[in-house]
Amino acid sequence: MGKQKKARKYATMKRMLSLQDQRLKEKDRLKPKKKEKKDPSALKEREVPQHPSCLFFQYNTQLGHLTTSWLIPTLSTFPLKPNLT
């Protein structure tokens, strides 16, 4: 005989006590204080660090041109053959 499979518990979750539960004490039944809403009309200022412009491709001279760095050495090791179609 084969081994019997165990039944899986699909709908299990941790149960939370409600605020009206008899087991809670009076001081624990108090609802947590809500945070005050901030004034939406007030402008928020924050400092964002500015990235150097050399990181962008149009201005990046450190990367070099694609054909000079990769294409020419590849073409020199694998010479072009004419297509005879």
Structure description:
- This protein is mostly loops and 85 residues long.
- 14% of the residues lie in helices and 0% in strands.
- The chain has one helix at 66-77.
- The longest helix is centred in the last third of the chain and has 12 residues, at 66-77.
- The chain starts with 65 loop residues before the first helix and ends in an 8-residue tail after the last helix.
In summary, what is this structure?
The protein is low in regular secondary structure and 85 residues long. It has a domain of 25 residues. It contains 1 helix and no strands.
Q: Keywords for this structure?
A:
85 residues; 1 helix; 0% strand
Spell out the blueprint of helices and strands.
Elements: H1 66-77
Largest sheet: none
Helical fraction equals 10-25%
Structural class: little secondary structure
In DSSP terms, counting alpha (H) and pi (I) runs of 4 or more, how many helices? 1
Unreliable spans: none
Principal-axis shape: flat
As a percent range, the share of strand residues is: under 5%
* Mean pLDDT over the residues: 70
CA-CA gap between termini: 68 Å
Cα Rg: 34 Å
Q: How many E strands?
A: 0
Give the SSE order as H and E letters.
Answer: H
